Every structure is written in C-alpha cells, then in structure tokens.
Known about the structure:
There is one protein chain. By secondary structure, this protein is an alpha/beta fold. It has 15 helices and 21 strands. It has two domains: 3-247 and 452-476, Aldehyde Dehydrogenase, Chain A, domain 1 (3-Layer(aba) Sandwich); 251-433, Aldehyde Dehydrogenase, Chain A, domain 2, CATH 3.40.309.10. The protein has helices spanning 38-56, 60-76, 78-89, 93-114, 152-163, 177-189, 204-212, 226-238, 261-273, 290-305, 325-341, 374-377, 393-401, 416-425, 464-467, and strands spanning 3-4, 6-8, 11-13, 17-22, 25-34, 120-123, 129-137, 140-144, 167-171, 197-199, 219-223, 242-246, 251-255, 283-289, 344-347, 364-369, 384-390, 408-412, 430-433, 453-454, 468-476. The mean pLDDT is 97.
Amino acid sequence: MTLHQNLIAGEWVGGDGVANINPSDTNDVIGEYARASAEDAKAAIAAAKAAFPGWSRSGILERHAILRKTADEILARKDELGRLLSREEGKTLAEGIGETVRAGQIFDFFAGEALRLAGEVIPSVRPNIGVEITREPVGVVGIITPWNFPIAIPAWKIAPALCYGNTIVFKPAELVPGCSWAIVDILVRAGLPKGVLNLVMGKGSVVGQAMLDSPDIQAITFTGSTGTGKRVALASVEHNRKYQLEMGGKNPFVVLDDADLGVAVEAAVNSAFFSTGQRCTASSRVIVTEGIHDRFVQAMGERMKGLVIDDALKAGTHIGPVVDQSQLKQDTDYIAIGKQEGAKLAFGGELLKRDTPGFYLQPALFTEATNQMRISQEEIFGPVASVIRVKDYDEALSVANDTPFGLSSGIATTSLKHATHFKRNAEAGMVMVNLPTAGVDFHVPFGGRKGSSHGSREQGRYAAEFYTTVKTAYTLA
Ligand code: NDP
C-alpha cells in the first residue's frame, strides 16, 4: 500500500504509516499516511521560517498562478477527490464532490485576491507629510484542522495564507489525512517553492502541541472542538501570537406558526441530519411555536422515514455513516442521556446494519425537550436533534439565544417583521431565513460569536484581517 509522506522543507519524508479507514466499510483501508513526531513538527516550523523572507516578497503574479493552477486541478479532479473525501469521512458522494468544488472555488477566489492586494495613501493631519497604510504577511502560520470538512477547511485556511505571503505549517486531523495530502501534492506541483507549505500529519497531542509550543509560529488558525480551542488560545497568549478559533455550535432553528411547513421541514432535516449532523453549523435545537408544533413533528417523522442511511459512496444514500467508533459512542451516549432527561425519542436513534461493517446510525429526533437539558446545551456533533416547544416568537428568540454558542441561527417564517427582527437579534455570526443553518457561500465572511469563535472572520475578503498585519508609514515630503 502506498505510503503518503509528510512534506518538510520541500521533501517528502517519514516512514511510519497510519491506516486511513473508510467509516462506511471498516475493511476498506484507503491508504497509509505518515505520522509525524514533535521533532518533525519542529523541522517543519524551521523550514517555514526559512522560507518566509522569500515568499513574503514573492510577486503577486507568482502567487496568483500557483493558486489558480491549484484551483484548476482541484476542479478538474472533483469526482476523484470528492470520492476520496466521502471514502475517508463518510459524507455522501454528492456532498463530497460539492465540498471539493467549494475548495476549488476558494483557491480560485484567492488567486484573484492576490492580484488585488492594495493599500491606502491618505494625507496626514500635519502639513507636508504623506501616510501610507499597507498590509504585510504575518509570518509563519500554523493551520490545525478538524475531520468534518477534510478539503474545504484546509482550503479556506491555506489559500488566504499563501495569497497574502505567509508560509505554513499544516496539521490536518489524523482521522482524515487523505484530502489534505492531495491538496498539498497539488500545490507543490503547481510550483510552490520549498518550505513555503509544510505538511505534518499526526496526532494533535504531539504535532499540534509542538506547534502551539513554538515561538516561531506567528499566527495559528484553528477549527475544532472548544476544549482544544482553549489550549490554542492559552498557548498563543503565552507566545504573544495572533490566533483565530472556530469551534463548536448548538445552532437553533426556529419554526413559527406562519412558516411554510414544507420549507421548514426541508430546512430542519437538512440542518439536523445532512452530512450525518457532523457540521459545526448543524442545528440540533429545533424551536417550534405551539400552533404548528404537532403538524411539524408529524411531517418531520414522515420525511425522516424516507431518508436512506447507507454507504456514503452508494447511489441513493442520503446520509452516510458516523465518522468513527468514538463519535458513534458520543452520539449514542447523548441519545441515552436525552431519554434519561425525560425527552421523548420520537423517531430513529437505532444502530443500523448494512452490507459492509460501518458506523451507521439512524437519525434521531427527540420531542418534549427543554432548553435546559444537556442534549439542548452540549454539542453532540451527530445526527441527533431535539424539538423544543415554545409559546410564541418572543419565547422562541429567547430560547434560541440561550446557549453558550453563537455560530449560526435559522428561522422559518413568512413574516417579514419576524424575519427582520430575528436577523437583528439572533446572537450568532450567521443568520438564515427559510434556509438551513448550514450551507454558506465561499466569498463572504464565516464565523460566530460567544463560545463558537474567537478572532477575525474567515473566508472572503475578511480573511485578510487574520493573514496580514497592518503597517502605517509616514513620509516627509
Ligand atoms: P478536535 O479539537 O479534537 O481536533 C481539531 C484539531 O486539533 C485536530 O487536527 C486535532 O488533531 C488537533 N488537536 C487535538 N489536540 C491538540 C493539541 N493538544 N494541540 C494542538 N492541536 C490539537 O476536534 P475534532 O477534529 O474532533 O472536530 C470536531 C469538533 O470541531 C466539534 O466540536 C465541532 O463543533 C468543531 N468544529 C467547528 C467548526 C467551526 O467552524 N466552528 C467546524 C468544524 C468542526 P487530531 O485529531 O489529529 O489528534
């Protein structure tokens, strides 16, 4: 079996491989991927540091061309890479291909941004002095990514980091190294100079920790759990480095009496269960006003009966397996907790057997849940959602905002008044009206507030905030 190695200082290195397993069929080994040590991480950081002076002064046309070529290759190989993604992570083939296209579009966007780098020239308040405001790269950027978007998240961090002239040490989640390795391979062949991008696959507690502990990383961008995010924050404060965190969510989806029932059910099913509920923007709290509650729950049940849960690569599958045994245990533990707390398991929640051994779980919907229950407060990160019954819009908004998280928030309503009020008052970084809480564009800011995020926004032109530092220069005429 081919060993996929780490990339350090432009060389593919490392011998000790870890098997990448398909969650739809645990007998299917996708490949062997090298496991980096803390020493490898240090070598990668040193390589990125050495490459920084050259890359930070590279021409914008060179950056544009490399990002553009990468975008073109990702898009040309979307079916193959999308298949790899679905095979290693377990989202359906349509979702895998969609995410791959998204990654290509992100590289394309930042290829364009490389040609649009600009500053400002403004007059000083003092006579005969000019002021220039420019953006410079930050330095060595550490990129740490989770398993649930194996190609899109690496793309939305790597592309802007390179566009704005930074060098990179990149650590993907150990569970899904395949897409990350593929992106790095494409970038290298697109002409990236040695040391500009270094890949260190391996354990977070070893490789990630070595990155957090290094004084030579000037910025860390992290997506993952709240617990690890806090470690990134504390270590970054210690080294006085810039950091950006995208962490969990407990996103509410409000359904009002005046909602279009079909729109509400479709958006709720998508938000709660698509991508196996393993999205930080997934909605696991469906907050429903009492006039539509019973009709909504019944329609949800009907819709859920039609969902096909099977091998991610099979045609006709709507929902693939859970990513691994440990996440599956977390999901079933929360289903048990929900029952103990007194919520009613209205639909699903059973482990399923399919043709191949995999981590199959029937999506679960609780009713009669309250917002105080653990299933309503803690992130489950699986296909498990609960319906919380409320009196009216005011109570719905108050319950929606009663959470430590604040990533995405959705509402189903035909009332312009309520939609407008909700957009203004939802305590979240992203608000969706008659749309699922998940599913965002690549050219606009992404991120949350409260316990979900820290630092400036990712994606679109707002990404420049994190990947650059501003310089103000004064010149006497
Ligand atoms: P983790 O926090 O466990 O892992 C995220 C990354 O951090 C992985 O690459 C992991 O490595 C690494 N890591 C683990 N320990 C350390 C450490 N001590 N130092 C440095 N790095 C470390 O999250 P998951 O990958 O399990 O992802 C699921 C979680 O991420 C969910 O809670 C979800 O809500 C959140 N998430 C948030 C998103 C957002 O945008 N808000 C998007 C996607 C996910 P390894 O796993 O290889 O050991």
